[in-house]
Amino acid sequence: MSSPIAARRRTVADRALIGVHRKASHHRRLEILAGTLAPLIDGRRPPGAGRLLDIGCGDLGLVRALAERLDGLDWQGADIHELPDELAGVEPWTHYRSFDGARLPFEDAAFDVGLFADVLHHVPAHQLEALVRDALRVCPVLVVKDHFEYGRWSRQCLRAMDVVGNRGYGVSVPERYFTKGGFGRLMDAVGARCAELRVGVELYGHLPVVRRVARADWQFVAVLERRDRAQ
Description:
globular; alpha/beta; 7 strands; Rossmann fold; 231 residues; seven-stranded mixed sheet; 7 helices
């Protein structure tokens, strides 16, 4: 998720992109994602309790929306941006930790569930396996929301949506997105199994123009488990 503490110096164009995204989609998208992800997280935590780590948490909006739906949830956000001094000790940023993008600053199995929400496609290829492997060290279950591409058209449309949603915050726009085969190979490389895969999340039904272009099957949610845990 986009972070308000990234790219602190923004151009006029950056501010315009942020304004367009927030007005057109941001809050509605958070509501849809929270409603989609909450049941998956709820089924994989202790009843009425549990710890959730949102990796790449951005503005903490999604994890806070999840906490509102899941009573008793203890949550933490982690992202690559250093917290400015003026936000130290200020809610909700007391729940935030920065990290180097590869090694999470938490003990083994410190959380019940980890979350990557539209984060992994932004991770540089040389860091991707290390990050997911370390996330599985900290969180034996991971819930991943991301994109599947099916060729040039879907790829370029996804990139255009990423420009609107992320470039204003200084977040890089990827050249490519996951394919189903590529995502499966990542799971094999990190020693994970896909316990559940849901392809098709309708995020843009409220936007008349975008919904005619963006297909629901470009969005997916997967629940991953360490293979040694599943056996």
